[in-house]
Amino acid sequence: MDRTAQLTIPPEQFGTAYDPPPSGTSPHVRAARVLDANWTGASTVPSLSLYPHQWSWDSAFIAIGLRHLSPLRAQTELETLLAAQWADGRVPHIVFNPSVPLDAYFPSPDFWRSATAGRAAGAPRTVQTSGIVQPPVHALAAWLVHRADPGLSRSRGFLARMYPRLAAWHRYLLHRRDLGGGGLVSVVHPWEQGMDNSPCWDAPLARIAPAPAGSFRRADLDHGAPEDRPTDLDYGRYVRLAAAYRDAGYADGTGGAGGFAVEDPAFNALLIASEHALARIAEELGAAGTARHARAGRLTTALVRRLWDPEAGMFLCRDLRGAGLIRERAVTGLVPLLLPDLPRDVAAALVHTLEGPHFSLGDRTRLAPSYDLLGEAFDPHRYWRGPAWFNTNWLLERGLRAQGERERADALREAFLDLADATGFAEYADPYTGEACGATGFGWTAALALDLHHESHDSPGRGPSPAGTGASGTRDKGGDRT
After folding, report:
1. Are 278 and 166 in contact (CB under 8 A)?
2. 352 forms bridges with which residues in the sheet?
3. Are the CB atoms for 297 and 354 separated by under 8 Å?
4. Which residues does the annotation mark as catalytic?
5. Of 424, 431, 415, the residue nearest 445 (C-alpha)
6. pTM for this one?
7. The Mannosylglycerate hydrolase MGH1-like glycoside hydrolase domain covers which part of the protein (predicted)?
């Protein structure tokens, strides 16, 4: 395995932006070319035009793909992100590049005012960040990056340096964000969940008075079609929520920022997966991981108890300030397939729902849409309201494999690789036609395509044994996919 920060393909094939590659290059080379173009020297931007800074869960996904090209660069990706961690443990969803003009992205650093508004929460003084978070994929990413080249990782002390930061990150979520008192983590802004514009947020957001239209300028519309992006009304509500959280000093109260507090299935499932990974990291460092595996088991139980809906055949979001479960089917409710400790009937129902009329994977769609095909709010092109996203389909591929659904996982993998390459590694795609939507040359799409190109496709282990048997000793699905 390459031990340098250089890619394993000729540098003359790379440019400074994503352009259609020369004919005859392989999909592997084309994906690697995207990551090279988006590399800043310390981290990888999601998109050169639309997202010119470092994003939290993007970097975790990108590191998972980079490990196949350069384990050192993958380690650097995570190290750069976690260097911006706040003293209270939170990992901010954006780390701003000071060389990027303020008007290139909104909300910009002067909106978040992290160093001043976040002083009480321990925001760093030497780097500007946002004040909200994103899904905790980071421990899973760190473990997979380590396994790509354990010798390099040990020689650099990678896990020894990452573990305290990752443990503090999980501690922040589990202690500060259990706003419902039921053991699950809550998000206090739609941007925190990562699926920004999902119809799942429509009811909670309806309570929020939007910021005045003239009080902010949407830089995203300079780079994306308005019909593909959130509406001005929704964006005004996002701004209002973020400003309320900022003005409260980024304090996590029992009510959520500005009245928005939602327990989300995918966010919590990714925390559980990362808890298992953090246990593996502890074991690698010579400590016991049993307590973390047990905590992950308790979180899985809480997830089923609070968010599973048998009638819907999937997990639903819970609005802590509204009427309970939000009756919208979105891909977030399928992501818990990642967790092999799910009850068998729950896992079977999720697979059935994934292939049924609401998502129609393998029938009407090759990639799972982000929202219910039969839902009133479905739109095949508008941000998170129907298009198929590559990161969520990577999670579903991994989840199907975790549940022993090898043939279904293989079919999803093939579709992912075909469409990622055919769309120029698009941000997302029309779930029916495969038409590219959003930005092209998108970081996590290229990275996760590389991961699926390279993977041996054994299921991710979740417990302490090398064979992948979990803490409960049930349903051995194999070892780590390294």
Report:
1. yes
2. none
3. no
4. 196, 427
5. 424
6. 0.90
7. 51-445
